[in-house]
Design brief:
Chain lengths: 204, 203
């Protein structure tokens, strides 16, 4: 028996451009949730996430939406559209506090994180602490955490979405995890937090 | 290998974790354990958000946008009649009710006379709004204006007759709770812009 896999995104896009409504809705249903969550994590607003998700697919509808299969997957391209829309929104609203912190990569945002040292990050309260920590990351680091760690987008697609080399994605992700770890470790054990991100002190 | 070199070889950077260093460096081992907890936490967070997605209304709007973009029903800027699509109707009814609530909040004592009603209708025509091109439509409060070139949909719904009061029409108190048919004009963005009560003259 021949098992038929899901139709590739590229083929759906081809059918969409031929006026196939079913293909459009299939692509939407396949990709909307991840795009919505990306926008939600980046904006912290369900209303903004809804608008962004809608606008991404309206962009797909427009003639010559600019997708080039040679430069990456459609998924990465859609995340890239969502990201640009987010940036535009942030510029308009100037309400994204984390954006203002971009200029100061060395500093960590102040978070209202629980100081319960026993909290388990996989439990509900721990997840909420982690969510706030992610939300408070500077944008460039939040983007990679949301894409690579939360949405499990591969580095190549993330690079397409962010418009940067894969190496930059890797280094930002490394730095982002360090920032998260530093903050969460600091909350658990303030006395030793100063050593957490200074491995050079330990020369074995 | 020192600690800096160890952390510079993390998998996300394209390297591999050096177990030998972890056995020798308690500080890095402890931090590595915390990193594992962080990864588990991020996975749990992703899992807890797995069901989140755009609300159904986005799909409805996009479907309408697709049809508009592809020229479906071209030449018929207004699709009128009894093409009742349940989600549209529900959304439109909700918008009308919301508009009523908003108007009531602003104008709790709205008691328009028949002459005032005539004024309202005249204002519809003078707005320059596309809604004014369709006889009998009353723009909803706070609704954006429609350009002449914009495509619109009409959805027929039932709303409480009291909604007419809120829009400046006169209704006898004993009939305020009755339901009345109305055509709701929906703009290309899926939002209701204007309403026309079908039996406004039998108040």
């Amino acid at each position: 028996m021949k098992v038929v896999g899901p139709e590739p995104d590229d083929e759906l896009l081809f059918r969409i451009q031929s006026g196939d409504e079913q293909a459009f809705m299939a692509l939407y249903n396949r990709r909307q949730a991840a795009l919505y969550r990306f926008a939600l994590h980046m904006s912290g607003s369900a209303a903004v996430a809804e608008d962004i998700t809608q606008e991404v697919f309206l962009t797909v509808l427009r003639e010559g939406c600019g997708y080039d299969a040679g430069r990456g997957t459609l998924s990465g391209y859609l995340f890239g559209i969502a990201r640009k829309l987010m940036l535009r929104h942030a510029e308009r609203e100037r309400s994204d506090v984390a954006l203002e912190l971009d200029a100061d990569d060395g500093g960590l945002p102040q978070l209202a994180v629980s100081n319960d040292p026993l909290i388990d990050l996989t439990r509900r309260e721990g997840i909420e602490n982690l969510r706030r920590a992610v939300q408070a990351l500077p944008r460039r680091y939040r983007e990679v955490v949301v894409l690579c760690d939360l949405e499990e987008v591969d580095y190549a697609d993330a690079a397409v979405a962010l418009g940067c080399p894969i190496g930059t994605v890797r280094s930002r992700l490394h730095r982002a995890r360090g920032l998260l770890l530093e903050k969460l470790s600091h909350e658990r054990s303030p006395r030793h937090a100063g050593n957490v991100l200074k491995p050079a002190r330990c020369l074995t | 290998m020192n600690c800096q070199e160890f952390w510079d070889r993390m998998p996300e950077l394209g390297g591999e974790v050096d177990d030998h260093h972890l056995r020798e460096c308690a500080a890095c081992a402890a931090r590595m354990e915390r990193q594992g907890e962080l990864q588990a936490g991020l996975r749990a967070m992703a899992e807890s958000d797995r069901r989140a997605g755009a609300p159904a209304r986005v799909e409805s709007r996009l479907r309408a946008a697709f049809r508009g973009e592809m020229g479906m029903d071209a030449g018929r800027p207004v699709r009128s009649g009894w093409r009742l699509v349940l989600p549209w109707a529900a959304a439109a009814a909700a918008v009308v009710v919301l508009a009523v609530v908003m108007v009531r909040a602003r104008q709790p004592e709205t008691t328009a006379t028949p002459s005032a009603r005539g004024t309202d209708m005249a204002m519809v025509v003078s707005t320059g709004d596309a809604a004014g091109d369709y006889e009998g439509f009353i723009p909803l409060p706070n609704a954006g204006k429609l350009a002449d070139t914009e495509d619109v949909n009409l959805v027929r719904v039932e709303v409480p007759r009291s909604a007419m009061i809120a829009l400046g029409l006169e209704v006898s108190p004993e009939r305020a709770s009755e339901m009345v048919e109305a055509d709701v004009m929906i703009g290309p963005d899926g939002l209701a812009r204007a309403v026309r009560f079908l039996d406004a003259d039998t108040l």
